[in-house]
Amino acid sequence: MKTTRHATYNLNYHIVWLPKYRQPVLVNEVASRVRSILHEIADDKGVEILDLTVQPDHVHLFVSSPPKNEPALLANWFKGISSRKYNHRYADHDDEKIGWARGYYAGTAGHVSSETVENYIQQHKEGDS
After folding, report:
1. Does residue 9 carry a catalytic annotation?
2. What pTM, to 2 d.p., does this model score?
């Protein structure tokens, strides 16, 4: 369980996206650079990467995020910021640029037991406004 000032949460998301035209460009040094940039973004945005797999033709990201960050925002951050940072740092020519396909997959993961809910209720029964 994680907490913010006003919430106790366990929100984990799978986010998967593809390079433009599903080209297998995410290999070797490109994959390593993308991986590093995704970790930078997570650190900057206060999101925890639980698992990250960069395959030649897709990125699979498993993150834990506070409730204020909806899945669409997470996907936009990771896709948009990563392509801008990568292209600014490493792409001297257009054919070296990374671009992402339009869509993405987002799914939730996690388990909430009745005991977890009961504990939350008990902790917040007294004196909570």
Report:
1. no
2. 0.84
